[in-house]
């Protein structure tokens, strides 16, 4: 999977792309992640990437010509060098608080794409004409960050763990919270040694060795935990279960 990240702060991604699971995915060749410095495509001697808004108002707005120019330059270089750019162009994702909220189903859909470009905003946001040149707009939630870089990291991290060979166990990602296989439920509780800690014991069912019984217990606990902590997800779980049953 190739990911291009359009950002004013590529230095933020240097440690992120070389450490932990994401770094392992890069070293294994499962993930090819690169940053494009938006400033290099800025205008004038100061490489300006923003300007004052038409109609007045506070703050600065990111210029459509600079943003689109950077995206297209990244894609052109990739195609010329055949650097993992098998598609005619990448799937372009704008990161902003006005986008659809990221969830596991969206992550799974993105992870299946061979090439995506994540466009990180700053200042007061983008000139609205940028939307004509992207495929979708994604937000981490109903809150505002200083820029899209943290959202880009979240997407890369979440997608990386779904790529073949990145996690130690192929089942790990499939059985986690919010996965389609789990019908979007929260994950069941986990336990390890010690068997008892300050009076709190590991459930007996997990020590019995009957895998069918353990699986049933885990499913029951997942439903219970979801109902208690995220009751809003229960309706989605019913819908996903019905979709899987009809497929």
UniProtKB/TrEMBL annotation:
Listed GO MF terms: tRNA (guanine(37)-N1)-methyltransferase activity
Compartment annotation: Cytoplasm
Positions bound to S-adenosyl-L-methionine: 121, 140-145
Gene Ontology CC entries for this record: cytosol
SUPFAM superfamilies (UniProt xref): alpha/beta knot
Gene3D superfamilies to which the protein is assigned, alphabetical: 3.40.1280.10, tRNA(m1g37)methyltransferase, domain 2
Pfam families xref list: tRNA_m1G_MT
Keywords from the named record: Cytoplasm, Methyltransferase, S-adenosyl-L-methionine, Transferase, tRNA processing
Region (Disordered): 223-247
Enzyme nomenclature, EC number: 2.1.1.228
GO biological process, one term: tRNA N1-guanine methylation
Database matches in InterPro entries: Alpha/beta_knot_MTases, tRNA_m1G_MeTrfase_C_sf, tRNA_m1G_MeTrfase_TrmD, tRNA_m1G_MTases_N, tRNA_MeTrfase_TRMD/TRM10
Domain tRNA methyltransferase TRMD/TRM10-type span(s) in chain numbering: 1-235
Reaction catalyzed: guanosine(37) in tRNA + S-adenosyl-L-methionine = N(1)-methylguanosine(37) in tRNA + S-adenosyl-L-homocysteine + H(+)
Biological function: Specifically methylates guanosine-37 in various tRNAs.
Subunit structure: Homodimer.
Family to which the UniProt record says this protein belongs: Belongs to the RNA methyltransferase TrmD family.
Identification of the protein by name: tRNA (guanine-N(1)-)-methyltransferase
